[in-house]
Amino acid sequence: MVRSIQVLDDVLSPTCTILKALASPARLRIALLCARSELSVGELVTVIGHSQPRVSQYLKVLIEAGVLTRTQEGARAYHRVVDDPPVRALLTRVAAMLVDDTTWTKDLVGLKSIWVQRQRRAEAYFDRHARRWDDIRRRDIASEAIDQVFVRLVDDLRPGRVLDIGCGTGHCMALLAERIEPAGAAPVAGTGMAGAAMSITGIDNAPAMLALARSKLSGLAHCHLRQADMMRLPFVDQAFDMVLVSMVLHYADDPGQALREARRVLRPGGAIVIIDLCEHNRIQLRESEGHRWLGFSDQALADWLTPVTITSIIVSAKNRKEYCKTNRKTDHKTERNIGLDCGVWWGRVPQSHEQGDGHARA
Fold first, then answer.
1. 240 three-class SS
2. Is pLDDT at 205 greater than 50 in this prediction?
3. In sequence order, which residues have a C-beta less than 8 Å from that of residue 165 and are 6 or more positions away?
4. Chain segment 264-279, per-residue pLDDT in tens
């Protein structure tokens, strides 16, 4: 009897801790907001109108209770609800009960204002920087065709937890978010995913890129962003069902190490997807765009990914042309191809592949 009581206490104790943390109206408001979006202390202060020290204390309690998790990005930290279906389900039910609550309605208005401010800040900062990234992508490669191949592949793979390495402006994360709903959502017609539960984590080493991605993904609770180095991923072994490495490998000093890290965090049977340039001779891109590698061959990627067997689809960009002036006197212009062929490579990790030490990389 005593043992039964002890077992019951062990089971109920975490739940009681969570409920106690949410018993405060202010802490409940913060948890509900962080279920909608990753938020900093300053943003939460703006929305709920409490002082910074009070908000910091509320966050401390919620983190210690296992309701929220904290991610540091330089001098700023962002907070979101943990990836625990029962916790998220509880907060979803509470939010539904507060649909006519005046305070919660004001909080939602404040949250939308935060999203608008993020968008404006990102637009102002990236007019000449990160925004050019998407323009270059559309100019140099057949981006629409690549997106179509990627979306079909995701529908076939049906991943749960996804890691986007080098997420940049959040382009691929946005594509994924359109296809798959967060846990507990109703099936979405036409997605082919039957409402499968999913979380998408994007990492990038550039705070500027993360800022633009955050503005693009605002309101998507199953999308998370984190500043990290692809050579030393801050995740434990076997943490993800799919890892995407899109248009970033040609910047890596050691692509083999980057892919070994990607394999480390994949569960047995998980899928790795690489989108990058095929081999080319545009040497000037080393200087103009900072490319470290002039694309990749099937064999090079196969060697790096052993024992993963890879399949590839090559997306041609021969229709990407521009006109350039070749004679100043006659103003004669000739057409030249500026497009770069792109590959989509993927494969599954064997069910019994060798693992690391189980620890995240510092």
1. strand
2. yes
3. 203, 230, 233, 243, 244, 245, 246, 248, 258, 262
4. 999 999 999 999 999 9
- CA distances to 4, 185, 187, 304 from 194, rounded to whole Å, are 40, 10, 5, 34
Helix axes 41-48, 25-36, angle to 10 degrees: 120
Strand stretches in 205-265, DSSP E: 223-227, 240-246
Contacts of 158 (CB under 8 A, 6+ apart): 193, 196
230 vs 253: CA distance, rounded Å: 11
Is 52:45 a contact under the CB 8 Å cutoff? yes
Instruction: Say how far residue 263 (Cα) sits from the centre of its chain.
Output: 17
B/e letters for 174-194, b = 16+ CB within 10 Å, e = fewer, are bbbbebbbbbeeeeeeebebe
Q: With b meaning 16 or more CB within 10 Å and e meaning fewer, what string describes 201-234?
A: bbbbeeeebbbbbbbbbbebbbbbbbbbebeebe
| Structure-token pair, residue 352 | 């019994």
345 membership: H or E segment, kind and range: strand 342-348
Residue listed under structure tokens 């998370």: 224
- What pLDDT is recorded for position 12? 66
